[in-house]
Write a structure and sequence with these properties.
With 291 residues, this protein is α/β, with parallel strands linked by helices. It is 45% helix and 18% strand.
Length: 291
Amino acid sequence: MSKNAWIFPGQGSQCVGMGIDLKETSEGIKRFSQAEEILGWSILERCQGVEEELNKTKYTQPCLYVIESILVDLLKEKGLTCDYLAGHSLGEYVALYAAGVFDFETGLQLVKQRSRLMSEVSGGKMAALMKFNRTELEEVLGKTPDVVLANDNSAEQVVISGTSEGVETVLGQVKAKRSMLLKVSGAFHSPMMKEASEEFSNILDLVTFQPARIPVLSNTDPTPSQESSVLKERLTKQMTSSVRWLEIMLEMPKLDIGKVTEVGPGKILTGLIKRTIPEIEFNNIATLADL
């Protein structure tokens, strides 16, 4: 397998201190300044502040987008490139930026609105399940209203999302080695995001997407595409649809991808790949030192 891919983590990978070492680079100076003008607050201050604040959706998503985009800029500055791109939930916006679908400012404006709309949705829960019986889970989900599979991360790890009652019902009926409620404000990637998704679709309609210079594997459809209309349509559906990360990983060997670089804080995505497709080589770019 001779091709390589860059992948970008989403919400849940953030940590206090991330991106601070990028502030002295020319790209970092430029991007952090642009971000403060667009957002009205400082990415660096949030990333050096209290963890509870950083974990709020309205701050988490812009912080991850900006830091991962700077890392993309620095990789390209070194003359590095890849054959395919993919991002987990919020990370898909960085993938589209890396593909040249929109510029940094446009992407951040979209993320700003996305994070605002998602943070305003209250009610509902999300929960992660590890090492469970998939057939049992699918059967319980099928007969439990108002709860869906939100993140299909791997054969052994998923996230469910829906009403509080629905999520608790599923957790009470499906045996798992470990399950835990996620610290989020709403039921992301579920029909409960419908109103926010419709409002965000109106925002997306005003943005012009360019054809991707590098094929992107989307959360709602793991097949690679470079068509601007296709990528926009997929992004429009993302807020209410499941993140099909397991399918994205399984697509990689079919695309002759033999090396994957996770660009952003943490090692969540490469960890999933290691357990799912151990023959793929991987590395992580989270800091200036990693570059």
